[in-house]
Amino acid sequence: EKEYKEAQEEFKKALSLASQEEKEPTTPQEKPVTKPSKAREYTIDYEDVLYISVWQDKELSQEVSVQPDGRISFPLAGEIPVLGLTTTQVKEEVIKRLKDYIKDPVVSVSLKGMGGRKVILLGEVPKQGVFQLTGRQTVLELVALAGGFTKDAVLSSVIVMRGGLQNPKGMRLNLTHAIDKSDFSQNIILEKRICQNAPFYVL
Predict the structure, then answer these.
(1) Using CA atoms, how far apart are residues 13 and 44, in angstroms rounded to an integer?
(2) 63 burial via Cβ count (<10 Å: 0-12, 13-18, 19+)
(3) What is d(CA 132, CA 161) in angstroms, rounded to the nearest whole number?
(4) Could you give the CA distance from residue 32 to residue 14 in angstroms, rounded to a whole number?
(5) Closest CA to 10 of 171, 108, 90, 129
(6) What integer pLDDT is reported at residue 5 of this predicted model?
(7) Low-confidence ranges of the chain (pLDDT < 70)
(8) Nearest to 160 by CA among 104, 110, 198
(9) Which one, 110, 117, 145, 185, has least CB within 10 Å?
């Protein structure tokens, strides 16, 4: 129960990171001398699910899925090409199209789920974020794409979650023996059945 709650919090952080707007300082004096690196804002892909909310209009607010042609369909706004856009760019496009019907529309767009074979990798790795899986990759192969484990990683307690926030299902992996090549049974293959509904890894 505790590990699920911890993983849920990490997942919320990941979705927030994926859909947040990066705000630049408005004046040169406000800009820091050095700026820490930030993860690149997530770009929308096929089969992703977005939640578009229009303030004070519950009938318009709804979830939409990215169609095979890279578009979404939204009331009054029509068909909108969103493939490769950020949620910020989608919001701006929806606002522009709704202005013909609603005075000063207030719109928010958030990522609710990711399609395809994508995972969110969090925790003790140098490069956290969203990864696209290719072929039959294992957990350790995914970690390798992120630069390997940091010195603070607990290899005996790698948590794998799937099912999203509504119905999380998880397992705890012990990769200690997989690292020393004495037992690979815990280094599971990330098959499609595991990679649905934005699974993620807390290391």
Answers:
(1) 18
(2) exposed
(3) 16
(4) 25
(5) 129
(6) 57
(7) 1-40, 116-117, 134-135, 163-168, 191-203
(8) 198
(9) 185
Q: How far apart are CA 91 and CA 89, in angstroms?
A: 5
For residue 193, what is the DSSP state? T
Burial of residue 100 (number of CB atoms within 10 Å: 0-12, 13-18, 19+) = exposed
The pTM (predicted TM-score) of the whole model is: 0.51
> CA 82, 166, 71 angle in degrees (round to 5)?
10
**Residue 180 parent element (H or E):** none
Amino acid at 199: P
The pair of three-digit structure tokens given for residue 11, joined into one six-digit string: 């997942």
Q: What is the spatial distance between Cα 169 and Cα 167, in angstroms, rounded to a whole number?
A: 7
Rounded Cα distance between 101 and 84, Å, is 27
Q: How many CA atoms lie within 13 A of 9 on its CB side?
A: 6
Q: What is the 3-state secondary structure (H, E, C) of 110-156?
A: EEEECCCCEEEEECCCCCCEEEECCCCCEHHHHHHHCCCCCCCCCCC
For 3, the enclosing helix (H) or strand (E) is: helix 2-19
Please, what's the largest Cα pairwise distance for the chain? 65
CB 68 within 8 A of CB 46: yes
Query: What region does 94 belong to: left with phi over 0, alpha with psi -120 to 50, or beta?
Result: alpha
- pLDDT, tens digit, for every residue of 30-40? 444 444 434 45
